[in-house]
Design brief:
The protein is an alpha+beta fold. The protein has one domain (3-78). Helices cover 24% and strands 36% of the residues. The protein is built from two helices and five strands; from the N terminus they run E-E-E-E-H-H-E. It has helices spanning 46-54, 56-67; strands at residues 3-9, 14-19, 25-32, 37-44, 85-86. Strands 1, 2, 3, 4 and 5 form a five-stranded antiparallel beta sheet that branches. Helix 1 crosses helix 2. The radius of gyration is 12 Å and the shape is globular.
């Protein structure tokens, strides 16, 4: 499995974890399109990973920016034509 969640916020709908393929870190948010529910993975720095683990409000704000598609340049996988919407 490529992605390993380390911390999950069920309340704020995001997960923090490690990318086992690259050794990097991510914040993931759930999204859904008309066919499937899936996660979008956003690359974060080691410093952000450490900060977000200890500061959930900061992680939640970052996740909200991802939901607003303000940080698409950080997506690990670029979305296809049927990109899901956050929920």
């Amino acid at each position: 499995m490529r992605f390993e969640d380390v911390q999950v916020s069920a309340e704020h709908f995001y997960a923090l974890g490690r990318d086992c393929q690259t050794g990097g870190y991510y914040l993931a948010i759930p999204v859904a399109n008309r066919l499937v529910n899936y996660d979008e993975y956003y690359s974060i720095t080691p410093a952000q990973f450490d900060a977000f683990r200890h500061d959930p409000p900061a992680a939640s704000e970052f996740a909200d920016r991802c939901r607003r598609r303000e940080l698409d340049e950080l997506l690990i996988f670029k979305p296809g034509s049927d990109r899901g919407a956050p929920f």
